[in-house]
Amino acid sequence: MARAEDAGASNGWRTRFFGTTSTADEAIRGHAGLLARPTYRRLLQAEPYLRRSIPALIAVFLIITAIARTSGLIDRRMEIETAAGDMLALTAQTLDIALSQSAPDSPGPDYHLQVRDALAAALPPLAAPRGATIVFADPAGTMVTSVPPSPGLTGRALDDLFGNGQPLTTFGASAGVMDVMLADGTQVFATVHNLAGDRGSVAVYQTKDDVFATWHRDVSVNISLFIGTSCILIVIVYAYFMQTSRAREADQLYAQTQYRVDTALRRGRCGLWDWDLARGRLFWSPSMYVILGMEPNSELMGFGDLQGMIHPEDADLYALARDLLESGQASVDLSFRIRHAEGHWLWVRARAEIVRDRDGTPHLIGIAVDETEQRRLLEQTETADLRLRDAIETISEAFVLWDTENRLVMCNSKYQSLYGLPDPLTRAGTPYEAVMEAGTQPVVQSHVKTTSQSAPQTEDGARSFEAQLRDGRWLQINERRTKDGGFVSVGTDITELKLHEERLLDSERRLMATVTDLRQSRQKLQAQTQQLVELADKYAEEKTRAESANRSKSEFLASMSHELRTPLNAIIGFSEVMRSGIFGTLGSIKYDEYCRDIHESGTYLLNVISDILDMSKIEAGRVNLTLESVDFDDVISESAR
Description:
It is an enzyme of class 2 (transferase). Pfam families: HisKA (PF00512), PAS_3 (PF08447), PAS_7 (PF12860). One of its GO terms (cellular component) is plasma membrane. Keywords: Coiled coil, Kinase, Membrane, Transferase, Transmembrane, Transmembrane helix. The chain has a six-stranded antiparallel beta sheet, with helices on both faces. By secondary structure, the protein is α+β, with helices and mostly antiparallel strands. The relative contact order is 0.04. Helix content is 57%, strand content 17%. It folds into four domains: 236 residues, 2-Layer Sandwich (Beta-Lactamase); 110 residues, Beta-Lactamase (2-Layer Sandwich), CATH 3.30.450.20; 88 residues, PAS domain (Beta-Lactamase, 2-Layer Sandwich), CATH 3.30.450; 138 residues, no CATH class. Helix 2 runs antiparallel to helix 7.
């Protein structure tokens, strides 16, 4: 039951701190992250294209706005023109109806006043368009009065105002409202109506400047707004590109900094950790993946995955997180083994401290260093230290090493036995004075020269001396300074060398006496040597004469042999011719026997001469011996003969 409660508590704790059952807010944020992350990545991918398209989009926007406003202004102008024409036609039609009834039939004494009164009565208040001019002409076409009054028009012909042959004066109301140019060059919209009963005509015209005055103001306002909007957009685009340029430079600086940090982490064989204790997620820097031989991954690592990579005997992350959160400990420093991608274990030392987010979520942030090589070097150092101690212990000399403060570092048993030191004084850190006071000091000391032809100068502080112990043994002690300021001392037992030295001195004395005897013997030998030299000279002369006689003999034998071979060749040749009967028979059997005897004797004599020549070659050393098989019977018969 207790185990069940413990398990429930443990699961509840893990749920509380590692987020296996997250709140609704965390779930929503997690789902939003899942949805927003791909969109954000796509936005990052499309960001360069969007940034490049902004000037084009703004230009398109300005062009569309300009076209729309231009089209609106053109439509507005047409509406104003149409409205002005309608207003002029309506005014002229109203005056035509009214004046056709009230205007005088023919000119009289008060014709001018009557026309003006009739025109004033026929024109409603504020009925005339702004800036419009109304002219009344008598049946003869002479302008009588105008509204507003204009002395320059009265008394002039209507054709002088609009020009001769103008459709307005010819066709009247049928011509409608027309765009015409007055005699003074003013562009106007005008219409002319002929009154009924031949009472004259009425003309209404309005200048274009008055008609389009409002439109011109609208054009000016729209142009000003367009230019202002364009300038504002250009400034915004400039500011945007300046901001993006700064952001790009910041990104490049961040990328360079990140690259330098990653390079430093990779070279230093270390990585950054960010462990979200509440959600059980862990962020690793790319260098950590490199250390473990894994492909770098930007995704967060699950807590269970990390626990599965750590050696079960080294660390329990669940217990570590629980202790950190329950005890309030702010930092952690531990070493553990973690599995490499290739299967072997790496030693990692992690140092981190707890940092809380704005919402209070605890994060364990720190650094992890690969110390596999350091541990291997430490093991090798310990092994080398043990081997060094064993080696120092096994050497036949007394060895002792002191540090820079003259404290004992190590010594072997030979040193301890020679000086009679107790075990407590052989421990590391014992002062030099304490060792010297407790140890047995030598009776006799004599310094030894340490310089030689191979080493003309000794190191600073180096010395060698011989010391005799109380038991009669002799030691040669060599002391040398170490690089760190300490010194090492090696004592060699030279008792045998001392005894040998005494024997050598005795032998030297006997040798000196022997040398004296040898000097006397040498004088006798020199006299005998002189005699031998004289005998050798005589022997050389006799040898030279013998060799000369021998050469003369050899030359004589060689010359004689050559002289004998010539007639023997003729004798042997002619005897062979006579035996073969080339030129006929000899006539008697005895001749054949004589020829055979001559041939055999000549051949024998030739062989003898050849042997003599061979002897000459043997004496000259120019004969090459070869092994051949012979018939022993022939040898015996030849020898017997």
